[in-house]
Amino acid sequence: MPFSEIIGFTTDLRDPDDVDYVYYVTAHEIAHQWWAHQVIGANVQGVTMLDETFAQYSALMLMEYEYGIPQMRKFLKYELDRYLASRGGETVEEMPLALVENQDYIHYHKGAVAMYALKDYLGEDVVDKTLSRYAHDKAFQLPPYTTTYEFLDYLRQDAGTKWTPLIDDLFTRITLFDNRVVEATAKKRSDGKYDLTMKLHTGKFYADGLGKETKASVDIPIDLGVFARGKDDKEANQKVLLLEKRDIADGDSSITLVLDEAPYEVGIDPYNKLIDRISDDNRMRVTLE
Questions:
Q1: Global pTM value
Q2: Alpha-carbon distance 178 to 31, whole Å?
Q3: In the chain, what are the domains?
């Protein structure tokens, strides 16, 4: 596998908080032994999803096993921010992931976030089962070659009709969320517990290839997270007090929780698993009254 000097030889990884891109790029390139070297897509729209996006996902899961789930937000946020910045510079037309036309900001950056969200909602076993079946059936096939729509047929079959809207949002539409924490306050009670109140906003939009957005309804549960302060104040070392998917009202809403420990930070989609228009407002420090 060829590497540029900056990736393979001169990258400075002495800071343990940096993303280990040498590890990641190596995993990505090894994953091409399956995605593109065995499963070969037809030369049509979406072909780079079948090799680059799937290699991204394979590498992403190795990163999760190696460094742990708390470290994943750093990588997912990086990929999300790269996608959001790049789509603003599109000169022709942004395509949905399943119809990507060799647009690297889509098949690399958006693809990584979309596949991780798919795994998070459907479960890793379901996604692995689909990829395994698909690779087994399509490896080394002769023309006509496979397409993203064949893969999505496999995925819908394994996922069931419950997840059809999510699969469409991730792969066949350009879907953007507007989830943010508006306010977070907590007060210590006489019994030593804490009352936490969070004011939240949720929103979902569909965009066309030129960026025009249409309001849609939030129809999936979204991660709600509450975190205690870490010993070294690093986000990755915060203690998780609550992390669960909840049906949160579309638009503005307020949620009150009772906690055994002092909350330090809260978040809606706190690990940036969804394609959100602004990645920085998903978390907020708690104000202790």
A1: 0.94
A2: 33
A3: 5-172 (1.10.390.10), 175-288 (2.60.40)
